[in-house]
């Protein structure tokens, strides 16, 4: 029998609208209202300044290890802005800006970073999952949520965030395969920052892009300039519309860069060069977007100064409030709460035992 070729489309687009030099492709410029443009900028600037404050607090020993997001603000804030409140988000651990956009408080981030479980509490009006520390597991969670939305007949969408390292995990491939089979309304957003901690992308995959991995599972993939918030928003909006219309999932690869360490327990100088970082600093998403807003007459030196002052006050108020909250937290008995609706008998016994031991220890302190 002769060997015949199977026609398969392998096209993957790369989208860039506002390049690193501030050049705008007006033909591709998305129609975004002035209010939303300014809100996107405020969110990106808040995320950047909060990141800097968190680093200072960590170095002072006032919070624990955390993963900085500096340099990746456009990739996740631009994507999450395409969702509505009833949609769902499953973050990894480097989407603080997106979580704040969805209603997470700065105090919550501070509490969690200081080791308090109260910091992971999610309000009832937020359709978000807690951050996922196991790499890639949140892709399956988003799949389940999207599948459930389709089963129930709603038009809600799930959006999963993950890094390039997650694409080396089996969870990622299982989620994409099932999403393709069931045409689940899921938008998979990969923040490709080129480093899975210290492992470069070249040692993770032989694929030319991450976006092309979607093609094997039967749905579109697109690569975007992840430091261009306009491109990210445009791609995410298109993907969300597809999902909401019943056309299935999309994989968005946001090509970006982690300008700081993986976490504050990491020393990136051990595995990447200063020259590489300097080259990506020139592609910083924040000044690029600010230049665009100035050109549109939406941002001036005075308005930026006022916004900086407002953000500084907002962060300082959150720090002071969170530290006051910490004074009343830390009851060891809290470890038995928020896991079971009805506490099993064995754990109820342990809780009672611990309560008695704590009471006895307190009496000793009082006598002393």
Fill in the keyword field for this structure.
alpha/beta; single chain; 368 residues; Rossmann fold
CATH-defined architecture of the largest domain = 3-Layer(aba) Sandwich
Radius of gyration from the CA trace?
A: 23 Å
Q: Provide the number of structural domains.
A: 2
Classify the fold: give the CATH topology of the largest domain. Answer: Rossmann fold
Number of helices: 11
Gap between N and C termini: 92 Å
What's the CATH class of the largest domain, please?
A: Alpha Beta
Shape: globular
Could you give a short account of the major beta sheet? 6 strands, parallel
Would you tell me the overall average pLDDT? 95
| Secondary structural class | alpha/beta
Strand content: 5-15%
In short:
By secondary structure, this protein is α/β, with parallel strands linked by helices. The protein is 44% helix and 9% strand. It has two domains: 13-327, Rossmann fold (3-Layer(aba) Sandwich), CATH 3.40.50; 332-367.
Written overview of the protein:
The protein is of the alpha/beta class and 368 residues long. The chain folds into 2 domains: 315 residues, Thiamin diphosphate (ThDP)-binding fold, Pyr/PP domains (Rossmann fold, 3-Layer(aba) Sandwich), CATH 3.40.50.970; 36 residues. 44% of the residues lie in helices and 9% in strands. The strands form 2 sheets. Strands 1-7-8-4-3-2 form a 6-stranded parallel beta sheet, sandwiched between helices. It has a two-stranded antiparallel sheet with strand order 5-6. Helix 1 packs across helix 2, helix 2 runs parallel beside helix 7 and helix 4 crosses helix 10. It is globular and about 85 Å long. It starts with 12 loop residues before the first strand and ends with a helix. The mean pLDDT is 95.
